[in-house]
Design a protein that fits this description.
about 140 residues, alpha+beta, HIT family, subunit A, five-stranded antiparallel β-sheet, about 30% helix, binds zinc ion
Amino acid sequence: MSDCVFCQIIAGELPVTWIHQGERCVAFMDIRPLTTGHVLVVAKEHAESFPDVSSDTAAEMMRVAHELDGALRASGLRCEGVNMLLADGVAAGQEVLHVHMHVFPAYRNDGFALKFPPEFGRLPQRPELEDAANLIRSALSDRR
Ligand SMILES: [Zn+2]
């Protein structure tokens, strides 16, 4: 038995409230919802980090999240908007180390917020943007 809680859920070893069971990902209700209607979209393959799942799995996760966004808005649950959050890595706030995306209703004064760093709002000079972009483009071309 895996010690990964999401692998245990996918294997049917733990109780869960299903929303979707697909070829490459599943979706079920989060037991600690940020707002009512909070759904987790979870890769079926065990991988800690998003780049470690196949591009087909990543695409299916986004397709399911896209469908859930529309479903949440049409569900009758309080839902004035939808948040989608994939925390990739402990530093990003990932708690269960198995790739998953949070999809949950948003509404005015729902209590959920992103905390921005103190330097947020400072506009970087163009060369600073170019330097960062060069590093990203280089890494991207290495992955393709
Ligand atoms: Zn797992």
